[in-house]
Design goal:
Layout lengths: L11 E3 L6 E3 L3 E5 L3 H6 L10 E5 L4 E3 L5 E5 L7 E3 L1 E7 L8 H7 E8 L2 E2 H9 L5 H4 L5 E3 L3 E2 L12 E6 L2 E7 L7 H9 L9 E3 L7 E3 L4 E6 L3 E8 L1
Parallel strand pairs: 3-15, 5-11, 6-18
Antiparallel strand pairs: 1-2, 3-4, 7-10, 7-16, 8-9, 8-15, 9-12, 13-14, 13-17, 17-18
Helix pairs in contact: 2-5
Length: 235
């Protein structure tokens, strides 16, 4: 049996201090999961439950902790915006997970960017249409190597600083503890509507002060204790 067209290339993320690779399955994103970002987007964070959208696995760009990773300015947009996020790598699947099972499902963590064609997203929202055109496009999810949840990661990621700079200027700064829905709650809620699988990634939301970048800009995104990635915008 042969394939009628070439198979789509699968994306793999390196694992820190290991020769193993993490095969990326599905990429789930949590909308407006920091209160201040919810406010700047016009929502009431006290009222809104978490909601989810997805990026295709092919959107993921492995980003190094040591080198600059280039991503192209996307087609059809004039408002290309950054969103720094803590990324969860799922190692065990399941549905309707308890908080204890949610913790056990976490294989490790990474630093990610949920790059957004904000103008196209805004147009879709105005017409009540899905967000894919603004969120799920080529190179829209640079993600760092995965740091496994084991003895090497003895710190509490739930309290870590998260931030982003553009050309050296701090644009986003917060702490993971400011999540409206915690890491475990996000996993539990997501498992109520999708059966999670090993290989899934969950982008947990972004702090306030999202903004646009242009060709030539360089972003530095970090989560305390995990590391930082440098991503430049190219033609």
């Amino acid at each position: 049996m042969t394939h009628i067209i070439p198979k789509q290339k699968r994306v793999f993320l390196p694992v820190v201090e290991s020769d193993q690779l993490f095969p990326v399955g599905r990429v789930y994103c949590v909308g407006r999961n920091y209160a201040e970002h919810s406010k700047e987007m016009g929502d009431d964070p006290e009222r809104d439950p978490p909601f989810f959208f997805a990026k295709d696995a092919s959107c993921v760009v492995p980003a190094s902790f040591s080198d600059v990773t280039g991503i192209s300015y996307p087609m059809a947009s004039s408002q290309f915006e950054y969103e720094v996020e803590l990324v969860i790598a799922i190692g065990k699947g399941g549905r309707n997970l308890t908080p204890e099972q949610a913790v056990d499902a976490i294989l490790g963590y990474a630093v990610g960017l949920d790059m957004t064609r904000r103008d196209l997203q805004a147009q879709a929202k105005k017409k009540g249409r899905p967000w894919e055109v603004g969120k799920s496009f080529d190179e829209s999810a640079p993600v760092s190597p995965i740091l496994l949840k084991n003895d090497r990661l003895s710190v509490d990621v739930a309290k870590a600083e998260i931030g982003l700079k553009v050309n050296g200027d701090v644009k986003q700064i917060s702490r993971v503890s400011n999540l409206t829905w915690s890491i475990e709650e996000v996993i539990c809620k997501l498992s109520e509507v999708f059966e999670l699988r090993p290989g899934d990634l969950i982008m947990t939301g972004t702090p306030e002060n999202v903004g646009a970048v242009v060709v030539g800009d360089e972003m530095v995104a970090w989560v305390e204790h995990l590391g930082e990635i440098r991503v430049s915008v190219t033609d």
